[in-house]
Amino acid sequence: MFPHSVNPNVSVDCVIFSFNNHELEVLLIERSAGNTDKVDEVKALPGNLIYEDETLNTAAGRVLTELTGLDNIYLEQVFTFGDPDRISKQHDQDWLRSIRAHPEARVITVAYTSLINKERHNLSPSSFARNAVWIKVKDVPQLGFDHNEILEKALSHLKQKIYIEPLGYELLPDRFTLAQLQKLYEAILDDNFDKRNFRRKILRSSFIIPLNEKQQGVAHKPAGLYRFDKSQFHRI
Amino acid sequence: MFPHSVNPNVSVDCVIFSFNNHELEVLLIERSAGNTDKVDEVKALPGNLIYEDETLNTAAGRVLTELTGLDNIYLEQVFTFGDPDRISKQHDQDWLRSIRAHPEARVITVAYTSLINKERHNLSPSSFARNAVWIKVKDVPQLGFDHNEILEKALSHLKQKIYIEPLGYELLPDRFTLAQLQKLYEAILDDNFDKRNFRRKILRSSFIIPLNEKQQGVAHKPAGLYRFDKSQFHRI
DNA sequence: AAACTTAGTGTAATTATTACACAAACCCAA
DNA sequence: TTGGGTTTGTGTAATAATTACACTAAGTTT
User: Fold this and answer.
1) Claim to verify: residue B119 and residue B190 sit in the same structural domain
2) Do B143 and B66 lie in a common domain?
3) Contact, A78 vs A15, CB < 8 A?
């Protein structure tokens, strides 16, 4: 491996969502300061400066892997944040000084997002990520830099997208019930739907295929199981 | 005025659309090389490096003004392009060498877009824009850098947006006919609609207010005039 | 066997979408 | 002044989508 040269002015940040059958969660890291074992109590989105010789998309994937261990995740660009003061809060600067060659350099960041099923991926934080944790979107505290704003933008991007693409095939188990799917839509859109209308509409869409199986071992009438038919749509 | 320091790694590009009552047009500049009066025959979107102390949005407005004279245009971010090779074509490099301190530096560009009525704005190209011209979107030639790709992305952004926001209040005259409005929608969406259905739908929307006036001096039945009611919606 | 819990279903009213054709209003030219 | 040219403006029927709404069925637990 040759060493890569770093672009001091451009970073990527990743907003990775998951679903715990109830609520949306987002992946955050706990920053550790330099070589010390001191954990910075402020959480942040996984992100870092790009290399000079990689695309933004590649950078997002690499940085996500380096910080959290998540590998081979499909990432989609959301928005770019470039306020000149976005990294200049004192606390953020203190932290940057411990890890960056030019902590004072202006950094524009390109946000990427993805949806994953956290059961299918293991986290193994490293680099300056002392820890990587799933936090309920509704419980997200004040984050470093402008990361709350980035999260908000990724969320509204997600809300828009769910009308276009049948999201969720990544967020749910392979076989799922329509109640689970409905809860997912409700979590993303922060709304509630009528069960009958939701079912009618979603089954009309041909992405969701009924299986001849039922839930087992639940203390009530078992629900039928469904799966996504990925062949019915294509990423652009 | 103090001199501004330039960020060598980040630029903005502006995709400005207008409408000639028939087709969509986009604003391009003809690049002039350095101090020479030689016109680079390749056209490009108006764009340039950002200053260290301005936001991306501010940079987009400033650059647009500097290159084309368009002032005070509402600009909206579209997408960010960061391919490591996006400015390395020989011809683009030749031109960059004539105007940039570090022509070889990697540049990530943030694209912005707007819709304007070209009748209401004057072009006065300056800086390295030898000329600024409106080109029909369907006639756009091969542009410098990755600007064809950027234009495509801005166009699809526009198509998406027209479903959400009642665009067009900027693109049409203050008073317009429903046929003009329909042609605008058809130009943007590259589609054709049934006149009766279009009218019914658009009039249902409450943004479009009938006036008690008719076209004058046309050699056929004069059409009724309408205006937009801007109070009926708000930019986010 | 009764209580508990969630699944699964139908209908009527309203609204939106699609497809389709002809008379009315104005100008112009003969 | 009349007829031709051109674009405007309008209605309806068929189909599809949306909304609102409540009870029985199928399991488990006690």
Assistant:
1) no
2) yes
3) yes
The residue-averaged pLDDT of B216-221 equals 92
Please state, in angstroms and as integers, the Cα–Cα distance from residue B45 to each residue in A45, A177, B190, B212, following that order.
33, 50, 22, 41
* Residue B35 pLDDT level (bands cut at 50, 70, 90): low
- Count the domains in chain B: 2
Considering the domain architecture, whether residues B199 and B150 belong to the same structural domain is answered as: no
A222 touches strand D (CB under 7 A): yes
- Candidates B5, B10, B63: best to mutate against A (most CBs of A within 10 A) is B10
| pLDDT at residue A236 greater than cutoff 50 | no
Interatomic CA distance for residues B51 and B29, integer angstroms: 21
Residue A108 lies in a domain: yes
Contacts of A93 (CB under 8 A, 6+ apart): A87, A103, A104
Question: B39 has which bridge partners?
Answer: B32
Give chain B positions within 8 Å (CB) of A52.
84, 106
> Residues 6 or more apart from B183 whose CB is under 8 A from it?
B21, B22
Burial class of A7 by CB neighbour count within 10 A (0 to 12, 13 to 18, 19+): buried
Backbone angles phi, psi at B106, to 5 degrees: -70, 135
Q: Which two tokens stand for residue B42?
A: 């390749």
Residues B36 and B95 both lie in one domain: yes
B191 inside domain: yes
Q: How far apart are CA A226 and CA A208, in angstroms?
A: 6
Distance (Å) from the alpha carbon of B186 to chain A's nearest alpha carbon: 21
Cβ pair B27, B46 in contact under 8 A: yes
Residue B173 in domain? no
The residues in B 20-59 lying below 8 A from A, measured between CB atoms, are 50, 52-56
Using the CA of A218, give the nucleotide whose C1' is nearest.
D28
Our CA-based measurement puts residue B53 at a distance from the nearest CA of chain A, in whole angstroms, of: 6
pLDDT digits (tens, 9 = 90+) for A41-53: 899 999 999 999 9
- Please name the residues in contact with B220: beta carbons below 8 A apart, sequence gap of 6 or more: none
Name the band, by pLDDT with cuts 50, 70 and 90, for residue B167.
confident
State the SS3 of A16-42: EEEECCCCEEEEEEEEECCCCCCEEEE
CB of B199 within 8 A of CB of B179? no
Domain boundary among A161, A186, A207: A161
User: In which band, very low, low, confident or very high, does the pLDDT at B172 lie, cut at 50, 70 and 90?
Assistant: very high
Owning domain of residue A120: 6-161
pLDDT mean over A201-218: 92
